[in-house]
Design the sequence.
């Protein structure tokens, strides 16, 4: 695969600004999602796909507000179902570039089942989850990736539950591309998104995107993240070991599989539907 | 020997006895010979095998419901046949064919007063290599109702050779033995000659629903299996592929409804089919389709509820959730087919309406319509092809939810340059930008209501037949039984009007009032324990004069005689 690098002086036919709408985000100042939006527009510009050929699909939550902030086609649907909606869109419109945006509550809790089946189905879409380990929009409840001792009003003293490990789940379920990014590195994230979108099949990109309001401790993430010290692998066993033993701040492409994407072939519309009634005729 | 306009036959047997095979062959042969008829199957709870009964009605003209009484019951064997006692009404007028080695006669047969004639089906089958008792039973029944042996020859070749299990020769020999045995049995009626046969189809309502969807323009379906709707999806899967479409199996109904929303957003007319429990899971996203103005069609093949209920039996008890289930004020379309043939029209029309109005349409079919196989007259061709109004290029910025006189905003399809927008479930402006402003909330609610209320739905909104000061108001699959009850009343000299709305939402106040003009008594007939249809009528329409309600739950469909008795009792 072609090596891609985004720098300030890269000359692009499309500009990131072409992919940004004039809608003002609802996010808090300092939210990691601003950087994810920046990475989206940079990645789209780098890909050179015109905005009308891109669909950004989302569910509910802070992260899911992103479609309207882009100048692409978008769908801000119901909580947790964005992957299903995107699947229906992509199989009927394989010509479109389909990117799904989600968060740790939308994607791993209410949408958890769709996550597994989207990985397994391996339709050529890119799934971006902005993980801040908290429900921000509903003001600070624990999500599936929240640490067990995180004290909240709804779970005094913490949930006592081990966090869900989305990358392991993705690998086990058949995702074809697995990467982790940090929102605070929008250029690197954009480059990763370009790779993910170009990779055939279901690409899963987890972006550590701090919630400065309910998780001010996540401001430290910028000091914790580090590039993955290894090259991408297409060996699921190797990837599993890597993902299960890393510290959660390993940034990079952790798995790049070679499964063929699912895309039903459309028959040319040669058959007149009126022919179908013949089977009923006596 | 009397000529009967219709005859009802039940064939029962334990798992593997082939009762359903015999029943289907009987209906198919009768249809090939020019008769009309229908077959519903009823089975025990076993996943595979277990006792089964084919309930068949053959007639000289089209019929849309089972009769009140069975003329003929044949038991290939009687193991567990008692479970069908409530469904197979027999009496002194009935003839029962029984294999003396088929087990003890069930109580409902013993207590019926029916004449029982022994035919040693098993023993006869033994004398034919590969001979099967169910084919002998078929021969007996066919001869008794007045079918000619010739019509079976081609059928047996076609159907049984397909299965590759039983040789056609053995089946024909068994059939002949049955015909011969029936010669010695007295039966005082046979089918009258059919009326001049028009072009006819043999199909189930689930199949005609599938064809209606494709004719209406559906090219994407999402599927999650559920009884009794799965046949729609299974019918569509290979056929959508032939016409340039696709079906995707979903992980659950939450996914299937969202998949069709996604496909429709992309410009492809889309449908899913489910039953009550699945519809419950889809309701949130149906609200999204309403708010985001995405055309979709959801077919609910209703079964006994609530919860898992009776999956294999019919009920009209999902009316409330279809009409009122949505959160918020969410105008949408609800339609109900009235016969196996009408499943085609109503699904096609629903697709057309959903696309024209950019709104979700729920089609309330039911297990009876869906799984009944009927010989019907070929439904008339109609011109309803779903096609939404598309946005065409202009210099002005695109406003997806622009206010229009008729409430319908041209829809841009992804790929079109200069018209990018975000389909939005949040209250939004005309552009689609989220807002919590009072004015924008109000005008978009108004818009979504007005586009449905102002649309000219035409005469298809209801079936209206007859005149008179008594009217029966019913809906869905009961329309056929009501029509027969009205015929019975007519023979008593009582004129009864039929009013059966096919379009349940949006309500059609002026049309409904006109339909009931001059009516003094209204009998509401519906298959729900809670009287859901009656309450719906009360909420939305003025019911002139006196009103009575005949309503009861499934699992057995309300039959013509029940309705006829209600009319007679009220008049006296």
Sequence:
């Amino acid at each position: 695969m072609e090596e891609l690098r985004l720098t300030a002086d890269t000359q692009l036919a499309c500009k990131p600004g072409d992919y940004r709408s004039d809608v003002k985000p609802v996010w808090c100042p300092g939210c990691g999602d601003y950087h994810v939006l920046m990475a989206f527009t940079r990645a789209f510009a780098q890909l050179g796909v015109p905005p009308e050929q891109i669909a950004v699909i989302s569910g509910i939550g802070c992260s899911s507000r992103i479609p309207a902030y882009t100048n692409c086609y978008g769908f801000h649907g119901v909580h947790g179902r964005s992957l299903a909606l995107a699947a229906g869109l992509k199989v009927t419109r394989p010509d479109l570039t389909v990117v799904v945006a989600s968060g740790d509550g939308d994607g791993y809790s209410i949408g958890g089942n769709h996550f597994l089946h989207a990985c397994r189905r391996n339709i050529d879409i890119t799934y971006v989850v902005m993980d801040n380990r908290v429900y921000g929009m509903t003001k600070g409840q624990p999500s599936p990736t929240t640490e067990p001792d995180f004290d909240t009003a709804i779970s005094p003293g913490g949930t006592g539950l081990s966090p869900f490990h989305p990358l392991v789940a993705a690998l086990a379920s058949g995702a074809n591309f697995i990467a982790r990014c940090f929102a605070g590195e929008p250029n690197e994230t954009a480059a990763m998104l370009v790779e993910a979108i170009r990779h055939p099949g279901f690409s899963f990109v987890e972006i550590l995107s701090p919630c400065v309001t309910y998780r001010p401790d996540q401001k430290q993430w910028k000091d914790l993240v580090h590039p993955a010290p290894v090259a991408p692998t297409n060996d699921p066993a190797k990837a599993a070991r890597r993902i299960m033993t890393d510290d959660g701040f390993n940034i990079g492409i952790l798995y790049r599989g070679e499964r063929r994407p699912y895309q039903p072939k459309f028959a040319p519309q040669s058959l007149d539907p009126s022919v179908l009634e013949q089977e009923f005729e006596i | 020997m009397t000529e009967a306009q219709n005859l009802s036959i039940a064939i029962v047997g334990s798992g593997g006895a082939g009762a359903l095979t015999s029943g289907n062959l009987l209906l198919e042969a009768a249809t090939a010979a020019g008769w009309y008829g229908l077959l519903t199957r009823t089975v025990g709870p076993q996943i595979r095998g277990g006792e089964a009964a084919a309930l068949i009605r053959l007639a000289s003209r089209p019929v849309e419901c089972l009769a009140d009484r069975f003329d003929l019951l044949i038991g290939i064997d009687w193991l567990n046949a008692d479970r069908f006692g409530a469904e197979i009404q027999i009496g002194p007028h009935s003839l029962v064919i029984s294999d003396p080695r088929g087990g003890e006669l069930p109580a409902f047969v013993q207590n019926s007063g029916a004449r029982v004639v022994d035919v040693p089906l098993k023993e006869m089958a033994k004398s034919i290599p590969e001979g099967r008792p169910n084919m002998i039973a078929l021969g007996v029944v066919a001869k008794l109702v007045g079918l000619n042996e010739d019509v079976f020859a081609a059928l047996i070749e076609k159907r049984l050779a397909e299965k590759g299990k039983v040789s056609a020769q053995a089946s024909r020999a068994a059939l002949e033995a049955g015909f011969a045995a029936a010669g010695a049995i007295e039966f005082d009626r046979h089918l009258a000659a059919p009326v001049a046969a028009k072009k006819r189809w043999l199909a189930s309502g689930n199949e005609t629903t599938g064809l209606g969807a494709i004719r209406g323009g559906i090219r994407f379906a999402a599927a999650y299996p559920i009884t009794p709707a799965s046949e729609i999806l299974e019918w569509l899967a290979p056929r959508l592929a032939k016409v340039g479409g696709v079906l995707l199996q979903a992980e659950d109904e939450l996914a299937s409804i969202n998949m069709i929303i996604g496909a429709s957003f992309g410009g492809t007319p889309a449908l899913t089919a489910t039953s009550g429990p699945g519809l419950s899971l889809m309701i949130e996203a149906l609200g999204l389709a309403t708010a985001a103005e995405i055309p979709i069609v959801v077919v609910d093949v209703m079964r006994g509820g609530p919860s898992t209920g009776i999956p294999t039996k019919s009920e009209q008890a999902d009316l409330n959730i279809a009409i009122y289930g949505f959160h918020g004020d969410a105008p949408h379309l609800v339609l109900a087919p009235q016969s196996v043939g009408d499943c085609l029209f109503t699904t096609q029309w629903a697709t057309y309406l959903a696309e024209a109005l950019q709104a979700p349409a729920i089609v309330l079919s039911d297990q009876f319509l869906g799984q009944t196989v009927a010989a019907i007259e070929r439904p008339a061709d109609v011109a309803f092809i779903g096609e939404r109004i598309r946005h065409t290029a202009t210099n002005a910025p695109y406003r997806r939810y622009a206010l229009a006189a008729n409430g319908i905003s041209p829809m841009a399809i992804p790929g079109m340059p200069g018209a990018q927008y975000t389909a939005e479930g949040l209250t939004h402006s005309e552009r689609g930008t989220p807002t919590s402003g009072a004015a924008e909330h109000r005008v978009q609610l108004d818009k979504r209501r007005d586009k449905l209320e102002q649309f000219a739905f035409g005469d298809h909104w209801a079936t209206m037949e007859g005149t008179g000061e008594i009217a029966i108001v019913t809906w869905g699959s009961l329309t056929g039984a009501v029509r027969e009850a009205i015929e019975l009343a007519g023979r008593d000299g009582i004129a009864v009007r039929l009013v059966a709305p096919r379009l349940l939402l949006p309500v059609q106040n002026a049309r409904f009032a006109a339909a009931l003009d001059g009516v003094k008594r209204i009998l509401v007939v519906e298959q729900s324990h809670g009287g859901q249809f009656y309450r719906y009528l009360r909420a939305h329409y003025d019911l002139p004069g006196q009103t009575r309600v005949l309503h009861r739950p499934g699992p057995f469909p309300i039959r013509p005689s029940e309705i006829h008795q209600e009319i007679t009792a009220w008049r006296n």
